[in-house]
Design a protein that fits this description.
This protein is an alpha+beta fold. Helix content is about 40%, strand content about 25%. Strands 2-1-3-4 form a 4-stranded mixed β-sheet. A hairpin with a 4-residue loop joins strand 3 and strand 4. This is Large ribosomal subunit protein mL53.
Length: about 100
C-alpha cells in the first residue's frame, strides 16, 4: 500500500467487530517513521452501545479526502480503494520530476 501521500488518517471502529482486522492492518501498514513525522492519525474506538458507524477517512497531501465504511470489506479491498488516488499522485510526481 502506498502511504507516503497520506497527511491524515482517521479511523472509527469497534475493536471486536468484523471490521477490526482490516482497520488494524490498514493502520499497521503505515510505517512508524511516517506515523511520527508526516501523517496525523486519529482513532476512535466504538463500543457495542455506540450509535456511530465505523469509518476510515484518509486525507491526502493534495487535500483530497476519501472515506469508506470498513464493514464488509477486506484489507485488500480497503488498500485498493485508498491506493487508487495514491497511484495517481505517484504518477503525477514521476511526471513532474522528469
Amino acid at each position: 500500500m502506498i502511504t507516503k501521500y497520506f497527511s491524515k488518517v482517521a479511523v472509527r471502529f469497534n475493536p471486536f467487530g468484523k471490521e477490526a482486522g482490516a482497520v488494524r492492518l490498514l493502520l499497521s501498514s503505515i510505517p512508524p517513521v511516517q506515523r511520527m513525522q508526516s501523517t496525523q492519525i486519529t482513532n476512535q474506538l466504538l463500543t457495542e452501545s455506540s450509535t456511530a458507524t465505523p469509518l476510515v477517512k484518509i486525507t491526502y497531501k493534495d487535500k483530497k479526502e476519501l472515506e469508506l465504511d470498513p464493514r464488509g470489506h477486506s484489507f485488500e479491498e480497503l488498500a485498493n480503494y485508498f491506493d487508487r488516488h495514491s497511484r495517481q499522485l505517484q504518477i503525477k510526481e514521476t511526471i513532474e520530476n522528469q
